[in-house]
Structure formats: C-alpha cells, structure tokens
Design brief:
Elements: H1 4-19, E1 37-39, E2 45-47, E3 58-64, H2 69-82, E4 88-94, E5 99-102, H3 108-111, H4 114-119, E6 123-126, E7 134-136, E8 140-148, H5 154-167, E9 173-175, E10 181-183, E11 187-190, E12 192-196, E13 200-208, H6 213-219, E14 227-229, H7 242-245, H8 251-264, H9 273-278, E15 282-286, H10 296-304, H11 306-309, E16 316-323, E17 339-347, E18 350-357, H12 369-373, H13 382-391, H14 397-412
Parallel strand pairs: 3-4, 3-15, 5-6
Antiparallel strand pairs: 1-2, 4-8, 5-7, 8-13, 9-10, 10-11, 12-13, 14-16, 16-17, 17-18
C-alpha cells in the first residue's frame, strides 16, 4: 500500500522536475494531425501514411495559464478541432475570473441575471456544448477530457474525478443518475456537458472547490418574466463547495490530484499506479495565445462577440401588460380596466414580430406601434431606440413617456 504522503511527494517531484518546465510555445501540437499533404519530386501531393490508432493512447495534462473565459473556451475549441486523439488523449484544466457560461442552446436572459452581471463586471459567455448554465470564478476548476469519439466515456471521467477527490480527502462524493457529482448524496459539486463530433469528442465539467456562493446565486437568478421559449432550461439544484465540507482541501492540491488520476488511469478505467503515470506525457503549462496556437485569436473573437453570445439564442416570445394611468383613460371606451399589451417575438437577438393591443382612442389609428420596434436588437439600448422613434411621431408627451416607460419596464429585468 502506497501512503498518501508518498503519492504527494512523487507527484510534486514528477511535476517540478520533469513536466512543468516549458520554455517555448507548443503550437507544434498541431503537428499531430496526420493527414497533411506533402509533395513528391514531381510536385504531386500525396498524404502521409497514417499510423494505426493506439488502443490506449498516451495521456497528457494541459494546465491553462489564462483566467479569461473567452481565451479558455477558444483553447478548448482549438484543441478539439486540431489535435490527434488517435494517439494522445488530453485533460485540460482551466480556471476563470468570475463569469457565467451558458449552454449552446440556452437563452442568456432567462438563465442569468444579465443586469447584475453588467453592474458587477462579470462576463457572460456561451460555450459550444449543450447542457445548463454554470458560474465560474477562481474557486472552481474546469476539467475538459478530450478523446476520439469512439473512446468518449462520460461516466468513467466522472468516476475518475471522484477518485481524485477521495485520494486527498474523506469526502463522500459520487456520481448520480443525472451525471452530476454530488456530496453526501444530494449537494451538487460538479455539472457536466459534452460535444460529440464525427471523429473527436470532449466532455467537460466544473468542480466547485471554493467559489463565492452568494455571487453564484445572484448571477444565476434571472428576474425575467413573461417569457415563452423552447430553449434548453437549467435544472436548479442545491450546490455546495467542497471546502465547506473539508477546509483542508485547496485548488492546487485538487488540480494536482485530478491530473495525477488522469495519467494513471488507462482507457478501460483501470488504475495503473505510479508506473503507468510515469510512462505518460505528464503535465504542461500552456498559454492560450496566438503564438502557441495559431488561429486561436479569431476563435476568441467569435466567442466574445454579441452575435455568438446573444445572437445564437433560440427564438423566444415576451409578453407584458401595463395598466393605463387614470389621466389617460378619459375618452377611452372600455368595459374593464384599460391596459396596453405588448408581445415581442425575438429571433437571433432581434425583434422580428410585434403585436400591440391598446384601448381604442389612446393613439392615432394611423400610428402602427408594431412597426416601431420591428428589426431592433433586444437589449439594453431598446428603450432609448424606441423613444427616439416616438419623438418623431405626433404623439402627446404624456402618452409618449408612458409608451417609453412600458418598453423600459418590459426589458429592465432582462438587460
């Protein structure tokens, strides 16, 4: 039986002496692509011979040196697109400054408290995989397991994480039926998602070690109402930091344990011990920068763009009703309390259809309010844009202010 101290000392020596000394970029990772055409003496191109895939590819752990969510998402996508997983499997460990990350098919306005994020300078990002919304800060470790599609095995990866936690603590962690890692059978400490391609795949998950739970709850508590959508919705469950159960646990110790567990576990999920770990490629610090990974800069721009974060939102509908002030009810014919009803259909972050129901006599019948907002972006600038258009219309000031206020209130909890 190998003692825990022996394992820790071996890992530390393993990391310091052999695998964390990186003096130049590793853009050469792209050289692992085996189908690059080469020219013969006659100038004709032919493909290099492709080595047979390894049954148990060599393993390596990358640790990102960036805490920028857009850079790390770009790095994840770059590796997925460019690496050769027939011959090497990778675990990418990365952490982010405070941010909220939504799934590919989610609605940011209903999943996150966007006004709170803006006021708190917390980034909002959309990832390439499905699944639900998560909060990241430096107290959270993100793990991305890269393999060829045929070797994708989510449960094996989650079991591996549980083993890594148990090697350095006595915590009761396990994988539940939803593929979440839970503490004491009910407190979620890790969410999971995946992207499956034709040949490659990755599975990534969070591990809550010491995140700011107050900010987490505020950031993920959307105040948006009156929304009808078919976007993927997150399942709200109780969460817990690992350090609340074991204060001795640290980010550094768990990150090291996660990498170590990955290196010593073979393709079948069998623990090969120190001997297996020493035969792998070890740990490598990486910088998600253009010099290291050519083309990564463009990927980062795409992930940070408004078009990706908000424009990829599945179609949704917003409906709100506003009671008419008494001062405007003079001359209004209505058998009930008169009100203004506005419905917006939003597609790719742009208002595509508007339906307005208002009491007869409130406005000039020739004024079509539905055309005022058509084609405008659904966002924080919408109220000012509407007011600007209404200013050019022959509408009494009190009614113009009322309409602008309704639009402002309609989107205030969204943007």
């Amino acid at each position: 039986m190998i003692s825990l101290n022996t394992v820790r000392n071996s890992v530390s020596l393993f990391l310091k002496q052999k695998y964390l000394l990186q003096s130049k970029p590793i853009a050469c990772a792209a050289a692992n692509i085996w189908t690059e055409p080469v020219a013969n003496k006659n100038g004709d191109k032919k493909k290099k011979e492709v080595p047979e895939p390894f049954r148990d590819p060599v393993r390596q752990v990358f640790i990102s040196q960036s805490t920028d969510v857009f850079s790390n998402l770009a790095l994840e996508d770059w590796i997925y697109r460019n690496h050769d997983f027939d011959h090497k499997h990778l675990l990418l460990l990365w952490r982010n400054d405070p941010c909220v990350v939504i799934g590919r098919h989610q609605n940011p306005w209903t999943e996150a408290n966007v006004p709170f994020l803006r006021k708190s300078s917390i980034n909002l990002a959309r990832r390439n995989s499905g699944g639900g919304t998560v909060y990241h800060d430096l107290g959270n470790i993100n793990c991305t397991f890269f393999t060829r599609r045929s070797d994708y095995h989510r449960r094996k990866n989650l079991d591996m994480i549980c083993k890594a936690i148990k090697r350095i603590s006595d915590l009761n962690v396990a994988v539940n039926s939803r593929d979440d890692i839970v503490l004491d059978n009910h407190l979620k400490v890790s969410g999971t998602a995946a992207k499956l391609g034709k040949d490659n795949a990755y599975h990534h998950c969070t591990v809550l070690v010491d995140v700011n739970e107050c900010v987490l709850h505020d950031a993920l508590s959307s105040k948006a109402s009156g929304v009808e959508t078919r976007a993927t919705q997150s399942v709200r469950v109780p969460v817990r930091n690992l350090r609340r159960a074991d204060p001795t646990l640290s980010i550094d110790s768990l990150q090291e344990s996660l990498g170590w567990e990955f290196l010593r576990t073979n393709i079948d999920g069998v623990d090969g011990g120190l001997k297996t770990a020493y035969s792998q490629r070890g740990f490598q610090l990486v910088r998600p920068e253009e010099d290291w990974f050519p083309g990564l800069g463009k990927l980062r721009e795409d992930f940070q763009s408004h078009t990706w974060i908000f424009g990829k939102t599945p179609n949704f509908k917003v409906c709100r009703c506003f009671p008419l002030p008494e001062t405007m009810q003079v001359g209004i014919s209505s058998t009930s309390s008169p009100e203004l009803k506005i419905e917006l259909d939003v597609s790719h972050g742009v208002i595509q259809d508007v339906r307005v129901r208002l009491p007869y006599g409130l406005l000039d019948p020739d004024l079509d309010l539905s055309t005022v907002m058509h084609g405008m972006s659904f966002g924080q600038d919408l109220p000012d844009a509407v007011l600007h258009v209404l200013t050019n219309e022959k509408i009494p000031e009190d009614k113009r202010s009322f309409l602008a206020k309704c639009i402002k209130n309609m989107v205030a909890d969204f943007v």
